[in-house]
Structures are given as C-alpha cells and as structure tokens.
Amino acid sequence: MSVLNRANDSKLDFLLEIGNIGTGNALTSLSSFIDRKVDMNPPQLEFVSYDALLKNLGGSENVVSGFLITVSGDIEGVMLFLLQKELASEVCDILLGNSLVDLMNLDEMHTSLIKEIANVMSGSYVSALADMASMNIQNSVPDLCIDMAGAILSVPLIHFENIYGDILLIQNTFTIDTKEYNSSIFFFLKDESVSTLMRQFGVE
Amino acid sequence: MITLGIGEIGASKPPEHLATFALGSCVGVCLYDRATKVAGLAHVMLPKSNPGNLSNKYADVAIIALVKEMEKLGASRLRMEAKIAGGAKMFESVANSSIGNIGDRNVEAVEAILADLHIRIVARDTGLNYGRTVYFYPQDGRLEIKTAKGTSCTI
Predict the structure, then answer these.
(1) DSSP track, A40-56
(2) pLDDT tens, residue by residue, B121-133
C-alpha cells in the first residue's frame, strides 16, 4: 500500500502544494514555448480509484498520448504526463500551422513537437521541485506512447504494484487564449521519497 | 458479455463471452475446454505473488484460480488449451529500468505456470509495443484481438 493512501491532512496539503508548484512551472514554460497566454485554474487534488481514473480519461480504450518520465537522485519515482489530444492539436496548430488529425498516425514533425512539449513541461516541473527542496533530482527524457489509456496507465501502476490503492491525481484545467484544456500529471513517488521530501520541507 | 478489469478472472459458457480492455504489459490468459465449451480469462498484471499477497493480479495465483473456476462449470484441466495475448513493452525506458521488461516477464511466468499445469499454448499474440483489447468466445474458443490503430485479428 502506498503512503498516499494513508495520507493525513498535512500530507495531502503538502502533496497538493508540490503538484501546484510543479504544474504552475510546467504551464509557464508551455506558455513561453508557444508564446501564448496560459491561465491556470487552482488544481484539483483527488484520490481516485483506478476505474474512476480511467473513466476520467474517457474510458480504458480511449486513445491518449502518454509520456513517462523517470525521476531519480535524492527521490525516486515516475511521472506520467497525459497530453489530451485537443491540446496536442492546438499546440501543433500554433507552432506548425496545421493541427494534427489522428494521434495514431503522427508524422515525424508532429511527433517530435509533442515530445518537445512534454520535455519542456516535465523538465520545468521537476526542476521547480528540485530548486524548492534544494535537492538533486534528475528527470529522464520523456518516453512517448500513444495508445489506449488503460494500457498506458497500467505501466506506472505495475511499477508500484499499487492497483488496489487509490492514486493521487492532480488535475489541472487551464486556458490558452480563451479555450479550456485539461492536463493530467500523475506523480508516483516511492514511499520513502515522500517521507524524504516532507522531512526536507519540515512537514511531519 | 462479462468484462474483466485489471487483475480479475472470469469463466463462462455460451452464449456469454469474456472481454478485457487495454492490455498493455499485462497478459490476457484465455483457457478453453472444447468438450464442455467452458472458457476462462485472466487479466494478469505481474508475474509472481508474494507470500503475503495472494491476489489474482499475479500470474501464478490467477491461473490456478481460473482453472478452479472453470472446473466449477464442468471443465476439465486435462482438456484445457490456452491462448495468450498482451505482454507489450509500452515504454522503452521502463524496459531498461530496475523492474526490467515486465511484459516479457509476465509472458514467461504465464508460460511456465501453464507448462506446470500441462496446459498447451495453441495460439499467441504477445510482445511488441501496443495495447490490446481481447474478446474470448466460449462458442468456439476464438480469441479476437483489437488495437488502438483499429486493426483486429482472430487467433
């Protein structure tokens, strides 16, 4: 069982704050990447079951683009970053002048662009956390997989053998110009790493 | 149709078929007794159980439990044959991490357990790097596999 399942209020607040700062930085870098104004609404922190999570993602067979980032150094974990098709499409439209039509049949240009978006956003998420904690935290280059939501989401779950526990989901809605988008960032941290972070920040 | 979630098992007789969605590195283990038309499906997530955790998400626990479920419906283990699907490598970097290639390890574990039980694998669609949804029909033991690209095959 993960420490997240047993989280008390101060742990919840702490994790929400981590997610908030990380995501805020990720969206700031997205904003400068596409040179558009990006506004973030306050993040929603939820503990959800695996089934509820899949429903949230449009069902287990819904096609999404997922990026897996391995986090190592003073803390260890994996980050799963789900990029909604509409957002990927919007960014391609802004930068390449043509939106992508079919996630399953991306050309090289679109693929490398959305990989770069994930790279920029996950990099700023992790470095914000590392700076704030004064810790040594590295993130791997994002590994892209475009497939059924269920098949992608099972990977980090297996990593932590945590299928029956609840998952910490930090869901953000934000707007680019006037359109609203969702992003989902799942940060799966090892139990020891959550404790390490909390000690580092003086939260007990 | 009986839909099985991750780490679940189920058995059925015609006309009720079995399905499980979006197998990534998980393996769908389909067992069939042609004489009684009893079918069973397990959505296996990990290779081997720990002593303290005997859940159907582990291949060793799930397959033995599935055989028992099917025997309750009149099937005989001696007549069972297997078809397996899944065990993909969804992300390249995970395959190189400490847990190794979980898809391959799941497939190897399933093969070993089926061999122990003297259940022959008659067809398979495993490995590679994409998710699979499977439908298993007790009428004739056919296994239909669909992917996110919209392709499908029957084994």
Answers:
(1) EPPPEEEEE-HHHHHHH
(2) 999 999 998 999 9
Q: Which pairing describes strands A143-148 and B27-33: parallel, antiparallel, or unpaired?
A: unpaired
Average predicted confidence (pLDDT) for chain A? 76
Chain A CB within 8 Å of residue B148 CB: yes
In chain A, pLDDT over 90 holds for what percent of residues?
2
Return the bridge partners of B126, or none.
B86
| Residue A94 distance to chain B (closest CA, Å) | 26
How many Cα neighbours within 13 Å face the side chain of A72?
7
- What's this model's pTM, rounded to 2 decimal places? 0.81
Split at pLDDT 50, 70, 90, the class of A11 is: low
How far is residue B142's CA from residue B152's CA, in Å, rounded to a whole number? 13
Contacts of A161 in chain B (CB under 8 A): 46
Instruction: Find the CB nearest B90 among A141, A147, A163.
Output: A147
- List, in sequence order, every residue forming a beta bridge with B32; answer none if it has no partner: B39, B81
| 3-class state of residue B111 by DSSP | helix
A52 touches chain B (CB under 8 A): no
Active site residue B30: no
Structure confidence at residue A170 (pLDDT): 61
For Cα atoms A103, B1, A154, give the angle at the middle one, nearest 5 degrees. 40
Judge if ipTM > 0.90: no
| Across A47-51, B49-53, B68-72, B133-137, least confident range | A47-51
Of residues A143, A147, A158, nearest to B102 (C-beta) = A158
Interface check B128 vs A, CB under 8 A: no
C-beta atoms of A163 and B6 within 8 A: yes
